[in-house]
Amino acid sequence: MRTLAIDIGGTKLAAALVDDTLNIFARREIPTPGSRTSEALEGALSNLVAPLKGHADCFAAASTGIIRHGVLTALNPANLGGLEKFPLFRVLNRLTGLPGITLNDAQAAAWAEYNALGSNIRDMVFITVSTGVGGGIVSNGELLTGPGGLAGHLGHMIADPCGPLCGCGRKGCVEAIASGRGIAAAAQYELEGLTAKSIFAHAATGNIQANTLIQRSAECIATLIADLRIITDCQKIVLGGSIGLAPGYINRVCDVLNKEPDIYNVSVSPASYRNNAGIIGAALLAEKMIKKASPYK
Predict the structure, then answer these.
(1) Of 154, 181, 223, 235, which one has the greatest count of Cβ atoms within 10 A?
(2) Distance (Å, rounded) from C-alpha 129 to C-alpha 134?
(3) 271 pairs with which residues across the strands?
(4) Residue 211 contacts by C-beta under 8 Å, 6 or more apart in sequence?
(5) Does the domain spanning 109-270 belong to CATH 3.30.420.40?
(6) What letter does residue 158 receive in the DSSP assignment?
(7) CA 195 to CA 213: how far, in whole Å?
(8) How far apart are CA 132 and CA 137, in angstroms?
(9) Pick the residue with more confidence: 148 or 249?
(10) Rounded (to 5) percent helix, strand, coil in the chain
């Protein structure tokens, strides 16, 4: 089976053909439309998939946000701009003429990373720390999505009840503190207005505030990992995303985690597939779910 796999993010749209052996070919990537309207996204997706759809047996789309009955929505609407309530499955089904599945990108990435670990791991949690914070949970070898697509939205667990307001409407969510957006929002003085990427560059030169902001993020993620360990009894945590995979970040997280009591500790490793995790995970799930009635639509 050959899958047209699509990854929809806040900054880029990617698509590729993926075969049964997970070879990726004919990969294409374009910027996410700046206007953030349904019409603009549909037009961009049409241009993205047009050269590939005739070479695939099905499509599999992994997108930021919540996928509920094939419709794109979000806990934090700011992460989607004007794309909330976008009928993703219906649009891609019409554009490609193919059967398919749609699901959250972090859930898809979790499935890709789980399949890369080997058969001795049955319980794993994937955390992506990037513009936002998301994740996916694999329990006893099965990906948890939930009837409403909510499972794995780990960034909206509370880290500090008195913390900053999150875009979801709660105070002190992990995402509001540890994400790239959270790091940048907390910056003051000489770092105010800079992106998380620039703050990491300043940290590399020894800037005290930049290092403090990044350490705060790492401590928040380490606490989240300890909570997930006790909730899920997972055997492995896989960390991804532009922040999660930034040089030295995992070491910071593990240093904090190692100070917790032993029962809260768990092995933490970097994501294997990096930018292709969503594409590969979506293709793997398509192969599994197209063969039966799919709950991912």
Answers:
(1) 154
(2) 7
(3) none
(4) 203
(5) yes
(6) B
(7) 12
(8) 17
(9) 249
(10) 40, 25, 35
Asked if residues 280 and 22 have their Cβ atoms less than 8 Å apart, the reply is: yes
pLDDT at 297: 62
Q: What is the pLDDT of residues 253-282, one digit of tens each?
A: 999 999 999 999 999 999 999 889 999 999
Confidence band, pLDDT 50/70/90 cuts, at residue 79: low
DSSP H helices, the chain, are 38-49, 88-96, 105-117, 174-178, 180-186, 196-204, 208-232, 241-244, 249-257, 277-289
Coil, helix or strand at residue 56: coil
The pair of three-digit structure tokens given for residue 23, joined into one six-digit string: 């070879």
Please check whether residue 104 is in contact with residue 66, taking contact to mean a CB–CB distance below 8 angstroms.
Answer: yes
The pLDDT of residue 156: 96
pLDDT tens for each residue of 171-194: 999 999 999 999 999 999 999 999
List, by residue range, all CATH 3.30.420.40 domains of the chain: 3-103, 109-270
Phi, psi (5° rounding) for residue 59?
-120, 155
In this predicted structure, the answer to whether residue 106 has a pLDDT above a threshold of 90 is yes
CA distance 291 to 46: 26
Question: Rounded to two decimals, what is the model's pTM?
Answer: 0.92
Rounded to whole angstroms, how far apart are CA atoms 50 and 96? 8
- Topology (CATH level 3) of domain 3-103: Nucleotidyltransferase; domain 5 (3.30.420)
